[in-house]
Amino acid sequence: MSTLKTLNNADLEFFQSIVSRERFSTGESELDLHAHDESGHPSQRPSVVLWPLSTQEVSKIVTYANEHKIPITPYAAGTSLEGNPIPVRGGIALDMRKMDQILEVHPQDLQVMVQPGLDFKTLNDKLKKHGLFFPPDPGATATIGGMVANNAKGIRAIKYGSTGDQVLSLEVVLPNGQIIKCGTRAMRTSSGYDLVRLFVGSEGTLGVITEVTLRLTGLPREFMAVVACFDSVEQATQTVVQMVQAGLTPAALEFIDTEIIQLVNRFKKMTMREAPTLFIEFQGSSRVALEDEINFVKELCHGNGCKSFAAGVGREERDRLWEARYSVHESIKTAYPGQHGYVVDVAVPISAYPEIVRFANEAIASRKLVGPAFGHAGEGNLHAEILYVSPREQALAKEANNAIVHKALDLGGTATGEHGVGIGKREFMQREHGASLELMRQIKNLFDPNGIMNPGKKI
Ligand SMILES: Cc1cc2nc3c(=O)[nH]c(=O)nc-3n(C[C@H](O)[C@H](O)[C@H](O)COP(=O)(O)OP(=O)(O)OC[C@H]3O[C@@H](n4cnc5c(N)ncnc54)[C@H](O)[C@@H]3O)c2cc1C
Predict the structure, then answer these.
(1) Which domain holds residue 200?
(2) Number of domains in the chain
(3) Do residues 431 and 355 both lie within one domain?
(4) What CATH number did the domain enclosing 232 receive?
(5) Is residue 443 part of a domain?
(6) Which of 79, 209, 330 to mutate to test the pocket of ligand 1 (most atoms within 8 A of CB)?
(7) How many Å lie between the centroid of ligand 1 and the Cα of residue 148?
(8) Whose CA is closest to atom 21 on ligand 1?
(9) Do 70 and 134 have their domain in common?
(10) CA 258 to the chain's CA centroid
(11) With a 6 A CB cut-off, is 75 part of the ligand 1 pocket?
């Protein structure tokens, strides 16, 4: 990696000849826009931003970069939270957002083939007329390529699985410029090694994804949402464990701590009860079946001391609820202007969920920091946004985050539930993967011997 080089004028001229003047920039503002993501990791500018339009263009750029040992970092919507698309070694930021076409829709097979720069919200708008949707939803307006590369999850993963679970096949430009296809349109396969799964979550370190075939799901006919409030975090998180253990399959099961409810109330002018809360959604084909499930959930909630249980809210109210959930990040930013957020993202086996939430709250409070907790509880996933201003507070936030990650690993969990490794989680990879990490390094070396693809990330 130390042999990676800085771009010179001849390199820039070559890239401009590939993508044309309008899709090439060395302008200050574009370099700045591609120097960061949504995390607090230090910014680093690329030397040039390129916007390819086709797989052939990507291949020409990558082939040249490989021959000249120029770093390339794929960049999409830049909504990552672990520094994943920050071009830490400079070089090329390969902005994929102009490759945003739907290439094929196969409604009869519940499948769609897209270019990676399409964002999932636009995809879902266009799929409505077919009665289909792509379920993963990270809240931020992320692209399909960025979601595949980070294996994004979000609120609906408990029912529908991760982004990776929806990927049937991929077209990828390898670091030597070769274009390969992996996977098929069959719903299941036992053929060969599963390269699709290798590229899923590879964070742009093994190649550039240029086409994605996704499995889709029929739009559910009925929705029902529940808001359940408790006196204590322990009661709320125990209810989550019991729901999952009982085999219930809500479409979302989110934990939100009191302080976040307060902040969202202020930000969205809402009047939610200010207490540890669960947002739960059920989807299905008939209202009667949903009501049965909700009655069971109600019993569980009351058995755990639930203080208020509002069920059966209609589609409009349910949309308002998710709008509130999605405004968590903005609500925190607005309430604490000028402060930075250190975002915690761990996941544990479901029975350990109450313990990781208790531990995280204690790890943050004992350092006299503010860090309200929330998460995709049904998936054993916990987030907290630990706030800091001074370098001392930043060091304490990092210390608290490290303690939480080590606790998650002690409990049989993972350092990153859904945001990926990026820069922020690299230091935990040895502990999480042990001897397997060396095998991962060999795989990276096999694909990318010159280390040009998103250097400094993941492993
Ligand atoms: C408010 C907020 C809430 C969020 N909530 C969630 C959540 O609930 N769940 C969740 O999972 N995430 C969440 N995220 C994180 C983020 O939205 C996801 O990680 C998302 O997948 C990033 O997609 P992107 O298009 O922004 O990609 P980027 O951030 O631009 O890039 C992500 C990674 O993918 C690589 N990449 C991009 N395109 C390609 C390509 N074509 N080929 C190869 N590599 C590529 C990049 O190099 C980088 O490593 C949240 C973010 C924000 C800001």
Answers:
(1) 102-218
(2) 4
(3) yes
(4) 3.30.70.2190
(5) no
(6) 79
(7) 8
(8) 147
(9) no
(10) 24
(11) yes
Q: Does residue 275 lie within any of the structural domains?
A: yes
**Per-residue pLDDT band at 50 (split at 50, 70, 90):** very high
- For residue 142, how far is its CA from the centre of ligand 1 (angstroms)? 6
Q: What are the tens digits of pLDDT across the range 376-408? A: 999 999 999 999 999 999 999 999 999 999 999
Atom of ligand 1 nearest to the CA of 454: 47
Q: How far apart are CA 167 and CA 190, in angstroms?
A: 15
- Give the atom of ligand 1 at the shortest distance from the alpha carbon of 81: 15
- Closest by alpha carbon to 281, among 240, 237, 311? 311
Prediction pTM value: 0.97
Give the torsion sign (CA, 411, 414, 415, 417).
negative
Ligand 1 pocket, mutate which of 44, 55, 80, 453 (most atoms under 8 A from CB): 80
pLDDT for residue 313: 64
Q: Which helix (H) or strand (E) holds 63?
A: helix 55-67
Q: Would you state the pLDDT for residue 287? A: 85
Residue 1 domain-assigned (yes or no): no
Residue 51 has pLDDT above 70, yes or no: yes
Per-residue tokens: 37:
């993501």
Mean pLDDT of 91-96: 98
Instruction: Please tell me the predicted confidence (pLDDT) of residue 238.
Output: 97
φ, ψ dihedrals at 311, nearest 5°: -120, 165
Q: Scanning the structure block, which residue is given the tokens 């519940």?
A: 110
Q: pLDDT tens, 270-320?
A: 999 999 999 999 998 888 888 889 999 999 999 999 999 998 766 777 888
Alpha-carbon dihedral sign for residues 209, 210, 213, 217: positive
Please check whether residue 281 is in contact with residue 158, taking contact to mean a CB–CB distance below 8 angstroms: no
Please identify, among 329, 353, 383, the residue that sits at the C-terminal boundary of a domain: 329
For the segment 208-233, the average pLDDT, to the nearest whole number, is 95
Give the pLDDT of residue 2. 52
Q: What is the pLDDT of residues 119-148, one digit of tens each?
A: 999 999 999 999 999 999 998 999 999 999
Q: Of the residues 166, 196, 218, which one is the last residue of a structural domain?
A: 218
Two tokens, residue 129 = 């007329």
Return the residue whose CA atom lies nearest to atom 23 of ligand 1. Answer: 146
Alpha carbon of 146 to ligand 1 centroid (Å): 4
In a domain, 456, yes or no: no
